[in-house]
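In response to reviewer comment 3 from the previous cycle, which asked for concrete evidence that the modeling workflow produces usable outputs, we include below a single protein chain processed end to end. The sequence was submitted unchanged, and the resulting structure tokens are shown without manual editing.
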Amino acid sequence: MIDIQQILNTIDISEMDRKFVDFNDMSETEFQIYDYIQQPEPNRLTYCYYHRWVCTDSEVGIRVWYFDDKPVCVSWKPYRKSDETYNWLSEKDFYIVLEFVRSLINIDFDINILDDETINDVVDVYKTIDYKKFEKLNIKK
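The workflow returned the following structure tokens.
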């Protein structure tokens, strides 16, 4: 019988994929982040196959994921069309990787900041509404 520590101790990390590391499936499955994300070089989130095979035209198998060269997650995907399953070595590791992934998202928000002129324009327009039964302007009297 094999245990997690045995895998971590015996895996040959010299074969770690350190160049382009696609972790978008992980981002979607684990973090519900659907943006396409790329890491700047050098990659902090990497992986190394423990057991790898080819299913049709895709590499699948068991991977150990590393963050800053520390193992944080083990994932497996038995077939090309299967979903990859991710299991974290600790809750802390999950949140460290989550924060890292969030830091890579470049989102520009269009934020509307309310000012007095805008609210006055809106209120003036709405004051012209002919309120019907069950409609009312909710103000203190």
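The chain is about 30% helix and 25% strand. We consider this sufficient to address the reviewer's concern, and the full set will be provided in the supplementary archive.
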